[in-house]
Design a protein that fits this description.
Blueprint lengths: L44 E4 L7 H5 L2 H7 L3 E4 L3 E3 L9 E7 L5 H14 L3 E6 L3 E3 L7 H9 L18 E6 L9 E4 L2 E4 L2 E3 L16 H7 L3 E5 L3 H4 L4 E2 L2 E6 L5 H16 L5 E4 L8 H11 L4 E4 L16 E2 L2 H10 L6 H12 L5 H16 L1 H8 L8 H10 L12 H14 L4 H11 L5 H25 L20 H14 L4 E2 L10 H10 L3 H14 L5 H14 L4 H15 L10 H16 L1 H31 L3 E5 L20 H12 L11 H16 L8 E2 L10 E5 L4 E5 L2 H7 L6 E3 L4 E3 L5 E2 L3 E3 H4 L5 E6 L11
Parallel strand pairs: 1-2, 1-18, 2-5, 5-14, 7-11, 14-15, 15-16, 17-18
Antiparallel strand pairs: 3-4, 6-13, 8-9, 9-10, 12-13, 19-20, 20-21, 21-26, 22-25, 23-24, 23-26
Length: about 800
């Protein structure tokens, strides 16, 4: 069977890996300090997207730079073998080895050695929920399932509904004669570039090129090739969201867990990996059981999960160290958005669209459409578990569309189910009896329906809200971010302090972040957009001028376009074209992925071109951006300092130590100029105190000095206490004491300017302190904020005996 590297025969059972005792109990919460891996607790990570264009060797070459920057850990995307040519590596096809396209095992060892040489450790991303099946020949386990069907030793790896008969593969063109292009080549079925195995004893009876032979052979296989359009409605295996090329894995089976985790756990055992980041745990059948098994297999690992928490939702008491930080992202973003701008932006949105938009109604519509259309095949599988209820499908869809969180975790989370039942009944009283019956079953953790429904509700939330509603409700898109709540227009500083103190208490080793490979727009784009909340009248007038100059027959999407331009300008033309096409198809109001509206998209691209080609329009855009950019830089530095110093372990996404105007993926995976960053860091370390300007050197200063302080003086970051400013501009400063290190950041800078500046605003101080960024010493009991923040809009104060510039690690 085809495989990229030598290894066990495809037909052989998977090799056993480390396996915990069955039923190993989960820890009661975050790991105690005495379980920290050698090297001490993590202090900061730097995320690198390892990929064929930037492999393990290139990543290893960054080790000295990351150490100089102040990181304790390199944080990588998945390293196991991904589908050929994968740009992200989340489509793992072979769990036994490192991807050859990114350097293989030799590259991994090179990386491990480089990290050790520079005192760094590794946090690695893993993908337990699904595997890549777009190229069957690249995935030995999937290939064998296609060849042998239920008799394959890998048949239990995948969440396949074998009761439906043959395994459906949605790869054909949507044409009635598509199978006429099927051929037999080298003992395989070939459909254009797609290759499929032929089961033993089912090959051609005569010459393989005889007309009709390939059809007859196909009819004898364990799989059936069907139109790509049938995937969303008829698929016979669980997918990642609505992506048929990613097949769900059954890691709840201890043997599957062992086989798919053996290599990762080997890296942990030999000390090459210190931390594990678990991708998409909400897709798993039993997240709690999985995490307990993973913790038992890696008891000292730093363990993070990509769990998206809705506002107010708490992470269950799982044996993990925290989330990957989307909750922290929302808390920080809200600090820098002026709530006073909400009414004006709501009025503008209503005027542009001609209707008042209800966020709850919009998200309900998006989720219901996701449940009944994009995820129809998953819905039908659930409905088949309740054959006595003819309305099971609509009722389950309504429950999922009203779920207040991504999913609940039996036996806990019943209050979320009760909320969904009440709202579903309000919307669909005709389904009351069916809803009651289903709800009773969903309360029973032993019911198969109760085990599968949470996997479905999480996918419904992701597709209906993140990937649809976030592109439809464009009132103020800085808030339309993973883990955020677009209906919540900023929050008081006191709310941030409460959340930060809670984080310090429960998950001090959880990650914090501002940008990831999944965020809808980069941190600096959001920071600049936040300025608009302070000048809604100016923005409204600009939108009127621009829409008149370049009209688009979808006013809601037009507002998204113009906000994107304001946040990311100047941006290369081809990048903006790629973004608006993806965003419009995600919104699925004027065009979509499955049936693109050619006329609308032609008009959309014409609008983009006009921004660049119409001198007056381009000048107008540039003038407004020039007006808001300095305040955007202030916000960007403020939110970065807060994220780097708040409770938790901060992550710096690749390249964001300088200004970056990235948008949604794949735009945020563009190559990073690390040579320029090395050079600029060296100049900053040589004594240059940079201006806050377009070079981004001021941001690099803040990042490097803060990360080094966290690495070299962790004793200064062991607590959390708000520090209240006093004076007329007190509302424009956020400050807190982490146990010796005091972070100070400016918020709402335009309002501060209108107020006349800091005037007689002071911060209390009980000892002599030094600002890590400027080296200035302050010995007064009341520090004038005007003096403290006259150079930069942020400050990081430490006891005066602390070196102002922590030394670079040798």
């Amino acid at each position: 069977m085809p495989t990229a590297d030598p290894g066990p025969a495809v037909g052989a059972p998977p090799a056993a890996g480390p396996r915990p005792a069955a039923g190993a109990p989960p820890a009661a919460g975050p790991r105690p300090a005495d379980r920290t891996a050698p090297g001490g607790p993590p202090t900061a990570t730097y995320r690198v997207q390892v990929r064929p264009g930037f492999d393990l060797g290139a990543t290893a070459a960054l080790a000295d730079y990351l150490a100089d920057l102040g990181a304790s850990h390199l944080y990588t995307s998945p390293l196991l073998t991904a589908a050929p040519g994968s740009a992200h590596c989340y489509d793992v096809v072979d769990h036994r080895r490192v991807g050859p396209e990114i350097g293989g095992e030799a590259g991994r060892r090179q990386l491990a050695a480089a990290l050790r040489d520079h005192g760094l450790r590794l946090l690695v991303d893993i993908v337990p929920n699904h595997a890549g099946v777009a190229v069957p020949a690249a995935n030995p386990a999937w290939w064998d399932v296609l060849r042998a069907g239920r008799e394959s030793p890998y048949a239990t790896w995948f969440d396949i509904d074998w009761s439906r008969g043959r395994l459906l593969l949605p790869v054909l063109a949507d044409q009635p004669d598509a199978l006429d292009d099927l051929k037999i080549v080298d003992g395989e079925l070939r459909y254009h570039e797609h290759r499929f195995p032929i089961a033993d004893g089912t090959g051609p009876d005569g010459a393989p090129d005889t007309p009709g032979t390939a059809h007859r052979v196909h009819d004898r296989q364990h799989y059936e090739l069907v139109s790509w359009r049938r995937g969303d409605a008829e698929l016979t295996y669980r997918r990642f969201f609505a992506v048929s090329e990613l097949a769900g894995l059954r890691v709840e089976d201890p043997a599957v867990f062992a086989a798919t985790h053996a290599e990762i756990l080997r890296w942990v055992a030999v000390g090459d990996v210190d931390g594990i980041r678990v991708d998409h745990p909400d897709g798993l059948r039993d997240p709690a059981g999985y995490l307990a098994r993973l913790r038992a297999a890696a008891p000292h690992a730093w363990l993070l999960i990509e769990k998206i928490l809705e506002p107010g939702e708490e992470l269950p008491a799982w044996p993990v160290d925290g989330t990957t930080g989307y909750d922290a992202l929302a808390e920080v973003t809200d600090l820098f958005v002026d709530p006073a701008g909400e009414a004006a932006f709501t009025t503008l949105d209503t005027r542009l669209t001609g209707r008042a938009t209800s966020w709850p109604e919009l998200t309900h519509a998006g989720r219901l459409a996701a449940a009944t259309e994009l995820l129809a095949t998953e819905l039908r599988r659930l409905a088949r578990l309740a054959p006595d209820l003819p309305d099971a499908g609509p009722a389950l869809a309504e429950l999922a569309a009203n779920y207040p969180v991504y999913r609940s975790y039996p036996p806990d989370g019943l209050r979320h189910l009760a909320t969904a039942r009440a709202e579903a009944g309000r919307r669909r009283p005709d389904l009351a009896a069916t809803l009651d019956t289903l709800t009773a079953r969903l309360r029973d953790p032993g019911d198969e329906l109760a085990a599968r429904f949470p996997q479905f509700s999480g996918a419904v939330m992701a597709k209906g809200v993140e990937d649809t509603a976030y592109y439809r409700w464009t009132r103020f898109v800085a808030l339309n971010e993973v883990g955020g709540d677009p209906a919540r227009f900023g929050r008081p500083v006191a709310d941030f302090h409460t959340a930060a103190a809670r984080r310090q208490e429960r998950f001090p080793l959880g990650m914090t972040t501002l940008s990831t490979h999944d965020t809808k727009r980069g941190e600096d784009v959001r920071a600049r957009l936040a300025v608009l909340a302070e000048m809604p009248g100016t923005w409204s007038a600009a939108v009127d001028r621009w829409t008149a100059a370049a009209p688009l027959p979808d006013p809601a999407f037009a507002h998204l376009l113009w906000q994107t331009v304001a946040g990311a300008w100047p941006i290369e033309r081809e990048r903006l074209h790629a973004y608006v096409e993806k965003a419009a198809r995600e919104a699925a109001t004027s065009t979509n992925w499955t049936s693109p509206d050619v006329d609308f998209e032609r008009t959309l691209h014409a609008v983009v071109d006009r921004i660049y080609d119409d001198p007056a329009l381009r000048a107008d855009v540039t003038d407004l951006v020039d007006t808001i950019t300095p305040a955007g830089w202030s916000n960007a530095l403020g939110q970065k300092l807060v994220q780097l110093t708040m409770p938790g372990v901060p992550d710096v996404y690749q390249g964001t130590e300088l200004w970056q105007n990235s948008l949604v993926d794949p735009d945020n995976r563009r190559p990073v100029d690390f040579a320029a960053r090395r050079d600029l860091l060296a100049r900053v370390d040589a004594g240059r105190q940079p201006d806050v300007d377009a070079t981004g050197a001021a941001k690099l200063l803040v990042v490097a000095r803060t990360l080094r302080l966290r690495r070299d003086r962790p004793d200064l970051f062991t607590g959390y206490r708000p520090v209240a400013a006093d004076g007329p501009a007190a509302d424009h400063v956020v400050a807190y004491d982490r146990g010796g290190a005091v972070a100070v950041a400016t918020r709402l800078p335009l309002g501060l300017t209108r107020l006349g500046g800091w005037d007689h605003t002071f911060l209390p101080s009980s000892r002599s302190v030094v600002d890590t960024f400027t080296g200035r010493v302050y010995s007064e009991s009341r520090i004038a904020v005007a003096e403290l923040l006259d150079r930069y809009p942020v400050a990081l104060l430490t006891p005066a005996e602390t070196p102002a510039r922590p030394l670079v690690r040798p």
